[in-house]
């Protein structure tokens, strides 16, 4: 069966201060799949990611998310549908439960302990964590709580911005495994940025290689590993 499209990018360009950062980006992101953007520092990966939840807007081009043009979204609606998870898990002062409930608190709703426990289960944390102060958590545990919290609004898309880069080897593996599990169980479309090429090869359905503001190559992991484009081969060769 053909993969169906969750996000379409049509000739996206971005300029700032007279400098062209992104050039003619056209590509599709498929529903329920993990797409990872790799490429050298300064290629434009973060800039591109920031369009999907409207932190920045393209200078020209069209971005269609779940069948609707980005410009016709209400920001709140968009950010519930498209959740950003960052490199550093930002926590509010208080307990794990306070943090898990935050997306609901902001909507004047509440979360029961049972509901919170279910969210902890999704990220393999025990119920005993509910009343822990977030100051007592390790980096990996914070990232798990952050992932659990990002599921509360039942997003269709998760933007993962270097989510494992601040973690040690064991926590990296745990978060990678969790992302794969969340992707399958919640059928969330994931768009991932990483400098860790092994992580990209391990967890992606599709990889985009960005070089100098353009997509140099799109393909499955096998296709990217066999890419003929010299710049792509050089970038991957340097990273492995
Ligand atoms: N506000 C800005 N003003 C001017 N130039 C900017 C601005 N923001 C980003 N840039 C430039 O845009 C280019 C792309 O930056 P971006 O952060 O998207 O790259 P990246 O691929 O994510 O890099 P990294 O892997 O280092 O995070 C860089 O050359 C950067 O200097």
TrEMBL record:
Entry-linked Pfam families: ABC_tran
GO CC, one annotated term: membrane
Keyword Transferase part of the UniProt annotation: no
ABC transporter domain mapped to chain residues: 7-237
Protein name: ABC transporter ATP-binding protein
Alphabetized CDD domains for the sequence: ABC_PstB_phosphate_transporter
Alphabetized Gene3D superfamilies for the sequence: P-loop containing nucleotide triphosphate hydrolases (3.40.50.300)
InterPro entries listed in its UniProt record: AAA+_ATPase, ABC_transporter-like_ATP-bd, ABC_transporter-like_CS, P-loop_NTPase, PstB-like
GO biological process, one term: phosphate ion transmembrane transport
GO molecular function, one term: ATP binding
Source organism of the structure: Mammaliicoccus stepanovicii
Keyword entries, A-Z: ATP-binding, Nucleotide-binding, Transport
